[in-house]
Amino acid sequence: MGRVRLGEVPGLIDTRLLTLFFVLTIAVELGKASDLFDRLVELVARRVRSARGLAAVMIATTGLLAALLTNDVALILVVPFTMLFRRIADLELAPLVVLEVGAANLIGAISPLGNPQNLYLFTRGHLTLSEFVAGQAPWVAAAAVLLYAAVPVLVPRQRLEAAPARAFDVDPLLAAACGAVLGTEIAALVGWAHHWVPLAFSLIGAALLGRRLRNADFSLVLIFGFLFVGIAGLERGRLYETLDPAVLVGQASRGLVLAGALASQLVSNVPAAMLLAPAARSTAGLRALLHGLNSGGCGTPIASLANLIGAQLFLREGGSPRAFWRAFLPLNAVLLVLLVAVSMLLASL
Q1: Residue-range domain boundaries for the chain
Q2: How many CB atoms neighbour CB 138 within 10 A?
């Protein structure tokens, strides 16, 4: 279309953000290849003895993993494990998986690594880690309360036997490499290290993975690389000038909350973040947009990629699509309304 010249592309791409996504992908693959993540999830989940206890533990586990490894990866780790409980109990697992999807989207949002739009706005807004967490903490606390309040509504009272044991021979070298790569990534986010440091560690990790590197999913790196160029071209078109978010919603915090939540229902919260980011020109505006986008991860199935990944994993493991969407749609509709209300309240403070 001629809106972006080829020579402009290097200047449009945020290499720091793409580097962080690349490093995170390597860290995740190291953890998976070492069986470290599977072992940690099993140790947590095997201590519960009731369906509601399992739901409560898996909400916390999924949220913690999402905060460290992104929402998508957290679901890839916990949903298949949850489905193992079919072998020991006549338990409807759809509500548990739906709650795990909610935890990945909402509780994981406490950190910049929790989901892609968080990391994008964190780097764009030049926030410190403490500023980001402080801004997200009240919203995430409210979201966690809502998720735990949903447990007795969705999950029946039921005793469980111990989960089936699985052998996990954790590879100490790959597990240590995962910790080192993830640790340097966090150091770069905090500002204690240049982003080339975790990149160097990740290249060593890639060498340790060898052929298993082919299993790594680098799609986020490619998607964001193309989005940086695509959004720049879109911003130069007449349609964007007419529908400029800064004009339509202004810089008012409440307008950014609503715009983020509504746009996510139509195009998912990652592209919505990139479209609306120019309108958030202050820290308060950026925080309101974050709350709106994270609230917008609830609602329609396409509002967050994690929603579709959770559904796909559930179905792949033999779950019923009707059971999943019957639990997902009403819960997410309620969460969307309540979390937008919470976000609006926080925006007015």
Answers
A1: 36-168+218-348
A2: 15
